[in-house]
Backbone:
């Protein structure tokens, strides 16, 4: 009986190993890092046929970034669905191959696998700057391109990459925007001379957080604003933010610029509230403070918090000059909200990935003479759009950065992010300055 | 001065929970002799159990504490009988790899059925604080600290004063002699493991009002627990209590005076010093 059982188990083990080697790849991650290793790359059809264009999407679907990664992937999926519904690209349907990348090491490995084993030339990504930079270095040495929609680290486009195109803005622009907006608009609302503003910066320590923080610091120095406290931390490992809350209470900044992912954003809010250290203005940035789950968890206290991010929840009127785009955005939002019942607005990361994928597949690829990297690059550099689904236009520089990308400043109001800057995209007025829960 | 006291007290409060998580691990390690890398995943599951009893039955984590303990006990029995019991006499490397595999299995199981969303339990006392002469104490952390220390002390008394507790200590000192004394190994192992998991289950209930549940939440706490157990001494409950509090305070002081980036580095330094100066841990005795 025992022998039979061990034979059965051995057979099961061997067949699972064979299945694992067969075509579905597993993403490895060491136990010490993110910890959850899962095989999530979907099966691609055997060989790339002439009627199909295979594209890859690399996002975390396991590990602590899985929530944001899953949201982001949906944006890419919906964009592909819309493009295919309109007949594909020059008659060819787009087929998506996904890969899981819980951390940047796996992101690089998976990018290599998709490029070398599946022959994929176009990769969409990446949810995190860490992953983006890792994939960027792989595509640069390969015959492939990365269309980046989430990672804002400056490093991605500052190192002379020719195979990376970033649709959204750069981290340093965002940090600078937050400080400039505080100087131009918020100081007056706080009844302070802009030069007397006190700013604190709390950022997660990957290339995303440091890019934004560096931009903020540079802008503050240029404007002569005092940075009273700056701290970075590891978003994956942080379990307690008491020391930071105490320091913020002690230094009493007017504006706290917070660059985080979601878990640390929630932890930060809770800790600030517990220590009665909430500053008058919180200027969050991307990923964390803009996600609907942030507001859902933090509750009413989220109202009044700012976020420097890509546009979200823009009025459809913004697109009235391009009815086709307007219809696409409307359909995208409806499809997303049908897929994800846990939110009532489309998360900003999803808006970004939709924009990246839709713009590239709808506007850039049809113009490419062939699917070689050089021809696609030529098509990308020659595509100039006055409007994309993110509310700004498209004009890639030689470094791959979209020169027309600009972040918005949004503010949580009644559970939704209302755009308050720039004026042309504004859909509400400022509230709650200083924050109602500011400690006296 | 007040800031220093605040920092130390914040550290102690965090340390109380670290102690409770570690006490379970030290018992498994010391008595059963298995390095349980899935320890963090039991914490994660306990947090999820608390979350679901809150969402489905409207019981806050303190009200559902007993239910959680029962669920964790059942889980421990199932895991022990199906997994650990088979490798009790196997090589340590096999046991370790098995627990690593169990850890990955549980994490991915949670990811599969509950997705990656952060699950928070929002109850009125989430952000409640006590103000003692200017020192701010987070109420959920104070409750967690008191229950954690209370249970750890209760465990210590159990180990000192009851027959079963003494039997467990005997096994951790010398398994063969304990058997010769008539102690039933398998039953005692099972009980030690169940108690260890139930305690980490309590820690999960105490943590959920403070920290969200998600599939990989166990990772950082598991690492911390191993550090505490080594600092305090394997199979020493007072060691785990003291080690947890020490790690909490060091983390808090380092975070405030040096920087959050150095929090982990600070307690790793203590860890290395202990290993160099007293490898058996501050309260550990050498075992044969």
Residues:
């Amino acid at each position: 009986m025992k022998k039979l059982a061990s034979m059965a188990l051995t057979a099961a083990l061997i067949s699972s190993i064979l299945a694992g080697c067969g075509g579905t790849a597993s993403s490895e991650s060491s136990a010490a890092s993110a910890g959850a290793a899962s095989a999530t790359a979907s099966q691609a059809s055997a060989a790339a046929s002439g009627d199909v264009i295979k594209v890859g999407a690399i996002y975390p679907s396991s590990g602590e970034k899985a929530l944001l990664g899953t949201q982001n992937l949906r944006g890419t999926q919906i964009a592909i669905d819309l493009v295919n519904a309109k007949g594909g690209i020059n008659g060819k349907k787009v087929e998506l191959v996904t890969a899981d990348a819980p951390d940047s090491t796996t992101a690089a490995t998976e990018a290599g696998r998709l490029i070398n084993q599946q022959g994929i030339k176009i990769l969409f990504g990446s949810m995190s700057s860490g992953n983006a930079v890792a994939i960027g270095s792989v595509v640069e040495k390969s015959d492939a391109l990365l269309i980046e929609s989430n990672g804002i680290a400056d490093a991605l486009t500052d190192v002379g990459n020719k195979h990376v195109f970033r649709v959204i803005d750069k981290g340093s622009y965002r940090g600078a925007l937050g400080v400039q907006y505080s100087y131009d608009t918020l100081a007056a609302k706080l009844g302070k001379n802009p030069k007397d503003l006190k700013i604190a910066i709390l950022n997660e320590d990957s290339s995303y957080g440091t890019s934004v923080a560096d931009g903020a610091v540079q802008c503050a120095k240029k404007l002569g604003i005092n940075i009273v406290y700056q701290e970075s931390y590891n978003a994956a490992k942080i379990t307690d933010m008491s020391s930071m809350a105490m320091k913020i209470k002690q230094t009493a900044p007017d504006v706290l610029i917070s660059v985080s992912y979601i878990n640390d954003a929630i932890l930060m809010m809770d800790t600030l509230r517990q220590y009665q250290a909430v500053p008058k203005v919180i200027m969050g940035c991307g990923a964390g403070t803009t996600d609907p789950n942030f507001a859902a968890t933090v509750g009413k206290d989220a109202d009044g918090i700012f976020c420097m991010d890509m546009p979200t929840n823009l009025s459809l009127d913004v697109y009235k000059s391009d009815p086709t785009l307007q219809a696409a955005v409307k359909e995208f939002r409806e499809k997303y909200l049908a897929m994800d019942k846990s939110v009532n607005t489309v998360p900003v990361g999803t808006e970004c990935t939709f924009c990246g994928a839709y713009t590239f597949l709808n506007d850039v690829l049809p113009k490419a003479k062939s699917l070689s990297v050089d021809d696609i690059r030529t098509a990308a550099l020659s595509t100039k759009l006055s409007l994309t689904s993110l509310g700004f236009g498209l004009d890639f520089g030689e470094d791959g950065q979209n020169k027309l990308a600009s972040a918005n400043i949004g503010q949580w109001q009644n559970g939704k992010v209302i755009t308050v800057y720039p004026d042309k995209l504004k859909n509400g007025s400022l509230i709650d300055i200083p924050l109602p829960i500011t400690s006296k | 001065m007040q800031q220093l006291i605040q920092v130390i007290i914040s550290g102690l409060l965090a340390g109380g929970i670290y102690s409770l998580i570690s006490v379970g691990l030290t018992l498994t390690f010391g008595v059963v002799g298995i390095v349980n890398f899935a320890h963090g995943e039991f914490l994660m599951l306990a947090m999820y159990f608390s979350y679901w009893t809150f969402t489905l039955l409207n019981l806050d984590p303190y009200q559902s504490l007993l239910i959680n303990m029962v669920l964790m006990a059942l889980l421990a029995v199932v895991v022990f009988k199906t997994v650990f019991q088979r490798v009790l006499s196997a090589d340590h490397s096999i046991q370790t790899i098995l627990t690593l595999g169990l850890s990955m299995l549980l994490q991915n199981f949670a990811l599969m059925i509950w997705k990656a969303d952060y699950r928070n339990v929002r109850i009125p006392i989430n952000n409640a604080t006590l103000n003692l002469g200017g020192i701010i104490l987070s109420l959920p952390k104070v409750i967690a600290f008191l229950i954690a220390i209370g249970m750890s002390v209760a465990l210590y008394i159990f180990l000192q004063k009851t027959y079963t507790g003494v039997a467990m200590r005997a096994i951790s000192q010398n398994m063969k002699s304990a058997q010769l004394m008539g102690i039933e190994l398998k039953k005692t192992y099972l009980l030690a493991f169940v108690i260890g998991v139930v305690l980490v289950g309590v820690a999960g209930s105490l943590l959920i009002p403070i920290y969200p549940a998600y599939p990989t939440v166990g990772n950082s706490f598991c690492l911390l627990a191993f550090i505490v157990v080594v600092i305090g001494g394997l199979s020493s409950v007072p060691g785990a209590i003291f080690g947890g509090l020490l790690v909490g305070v060091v983390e808090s002081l380092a975070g405030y005076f040096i920087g959050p980036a150095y929090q982990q580095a600070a307690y790793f330094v203590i860890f290395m010093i202990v290993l160099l100066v007293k490898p058996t841990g501050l309260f550990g005795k050498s075992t044969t």
About this structure: Residues 2-32 of chain B form the longest helix (31 residues). Chain B touches chain A through 43 residues (CB under 8 Å). The two ends of chain B are 46 Å apart (CA to CA). Residues 32 and 90 of chain B are 12 Å apart (CA to CA).
